[in-house]
Amino acid sequence: MNDSSQNFPWFNVDGEVASLMARLDWSANAIGPPATWSQQLNTVVGLVLQSRSPAAVVWGHELSTLYNDAYAVQLGDKHPASLGTSFSAIWSEIWPEIEPVIDAAMAGKSLYFEDIPYMVEPTGVPTQRWYTSSFSPVKDSSCTVVGVYITAVETTKRMQVERRYAFQADLTERVRHLNSSDDIVAAASELLGRHLGIGGVAYAAVDESEEILTMKPDWASGGSQSLAGAVLRLDDFGPLVGDAVRAGKDLAIADITTDERSAAHAAAYAERSIRSFVSIPLLKDGRLRAILNLHDSAPHYWTTHEIALAKDMVDRTWSAVENSRAQSELRRERDQSRHVFDNMTEGFGLVDKDWTVVYMNPAGLRITRRAAEEVIGRNHWQVWPELAGTVVGDLFEQVIRTRKPGVVEAPHTMPDMERRWIESRVYPSLDGGLAFFFRDITERKAAQEKLEAADRRKDEFLAMLAHELRNPLAPISAAAQLLQVVKLDEERVRQTSQVIGRQVQHMTSLVDDLLDVSRVTRGLIELDNEPLDIRNIVSDAVEQVTPLIRSRRHHFALHLPPETTMVAGDKKRLVQVVTNILNNAAKYTQEGGNIVLKVEVHAGHVVIDVTDNGIGMSRELADRAFDLFAQAERSSDRSSGGLGLGLALVRSLVDLHRGKVTCESAGLGKGSRFTVCLPRLPQEHGRTGHGNSDTATKQAGHSLRILVVDDNVDAASLLAMLLEIAGHDVQVEHGAHRALDLARKTAPQVCLLDIGLPEMDGNELAQHLRAQPETARSVLIAVTGYGQDQDRRQTRAAGFDHHLVKPVDIEKLMSLLSEVGEHR
């Protein structure tokens, strides 16, 4: 790898693809060496490599393709050979479908597609996944389209849930009118086999000895062998397989020739064209009754989604078969069928043509929460008058009238007023009445609603995050172009720099919020507990929010207790709690509105109360104000935007301090009130040693020899310029080995080291610097994009004295250097 490749922003991105790109010889590639890449290409490649979701860029007339690690998963064995090659060659098998999309994007049109299926090979076996993708044109400085930026968000879980529900609905509809158990099994097997696209589906009945299998009517694709009617021995397929199935364990084997449970009996499988299979045993009353087998003539990695569908089919098919047998028995001899119905887990009842309830099984009485004397012999509409005019009541009357069965899911209020969801299947009986089956599906409905709500909130959050991260890019891009194309005076340069600084600070704040809420909610932070004066905490928070309050011309009132009042906690985190609540009040209070912060002291606790006369909240929003991603309606200018993380972080931090936070509002337009209650320390803990932390930033008072090591040339150069302006003697190196040589010659007093260096990382470089006498006592400062607790532990173990997160807080760095200079 040559030095010139270190000049590009994507070079210091971690990841397998980024590392591979840095090592590739691009001279013979259509896209050319990185030294010739345009600024636009370097920028979009950096965005692609830093994305955690699949992303790629297609560049130039040759459609040269670069992508990130997540996208490489989709390519499977095609990676890494696909790096830099034509997009049409990478996806040659589906290029006719993709070509119009790429052509439209290259013509300047942005495109968006939801839930597109792809076959990927994350485990070496093709697996279907779904993605929602966007195709955005990338333009050069002359507004000519030079490439396409492609992003994708995986929607596999949601699609699997939707497909599962669709399959369940299809299965219910398919077997609803079938009376023969063999017909039900055959229809369900075909539906599952076609839905999964596998070789075959077979249902086996097991005899009393649990040894002999009788294969029921099955389904087999064109190239697979039907097993219908065959009589087999379970142990012919291997004792380990037989033992697992008898124990009621689901069994999934991707390749019978390599799996130790089946390899010794591969011939028995091959004789029936089986190379991979899933077996789902059905146990009733502790005994193996049936086995559902999914099989294929080729190796097949069975996903949890496929196994879940198979298990659901077993339950539903068995239930349908039981229902069919029960109804058949009812038509032949009703009295003999009572035993079956009495032992069913589903509710079952009979109504005659006059609507008199003539029978209900114990499960039905349990589900409806009624005694037999309240139901049997009584008119159906008198027992359940609330069903009249509902979808359930309409279905009962429809079946009586048309003599055609039907099914419905609907909520029902129980005698104790509890609301439950019930699935009802209604069939015409021979005497002109009805037979109906029903079961409680409340838990399933609740799970489905939670899944849908979580999916909606996730999609809303991703859209909001994308918007919030894109917003600062526009002024940054405009400022960068202005600096390139226009000769500016010193004042205009300072203004442009301030614009870039503000937007970078905004993006940094968004990323910090994401990381902070993740660490706190997962319990990955440790509080620095110490006695603190609540007045200092509130004062520091007010100082941080004052610029926003002034800019919106709010009337702000602060009421603090006159005496020292101590609480135990982490000062930084408690200031963060109050700051977030005040920020929230300022954002959602109209200009010129009122905000009041009042601190009340009680015997055992301290109450911080923030009230405003802003837009207020609905009861529904107030109830979930502290949930992740919850926020009020965004204003038209998006000034009240954000990621919905601040209040969630507040609740987590207050909980860690053994406190409580609440929210209330009289309604929309009537303001809000947030209250934080914290335990109070006894009076003997009171001290005022921790005052406000707003000391002026120290400026460098001594000139230091400083070595800056960063493979990002632009970042290293700018940092060196700032240090030289502060009066320090600065030397810059971009490679770790050359940095070691230079350090031996110059003995720098301070070393600022990037962690993501190519030859050896910053942690290893720090260890080498500590080991050589010239730099053994140098102050080592890590400068990195990684700021998690584990990253700080690693740099500390490597010998670093300080850990700064990019973009570096220059005031903090200058303060550190000032302290170093004072002790030299």
From TrEMBL:
The keyword Kinase applies. The modification 4-aspartylphosphate is found at D754. It catalyses: ATP + protein L-histidine = ADP + protein N-phospho-L-histidine. InterPro entries: CheY-like_superfamily, GAF, GAF-like_dom_sf, HATPase_C_sf, HATPase_dom, His_kinase_dom, HisK_dim/P_dom, HisK_dim/P_sf. SUPFAM superfamilies: ATPase domain of HSP90 chaperone/DNA topoisomerase II/histidine kinase (SSF55874), CheY-like (SSF52172), GAF domain-like (SSF55781), Homodimeric domain of signal transducing histidine kinase (SSF47384), PYP-like sensor domain (PAS domain) (SSF55785). It is found in: Cell inner membrane. It is an enzyme of class 2 (transferase). GO terms for molecular function: phosphorelay sensor kinase activity. The keyword Lipoprotein does not apply. Keywords: Kinase, Membrane, Phosphoprotein, Transferase, Two-component regulatory system. This is histidine kinase. It comes from Pseudoduganella umbonata.
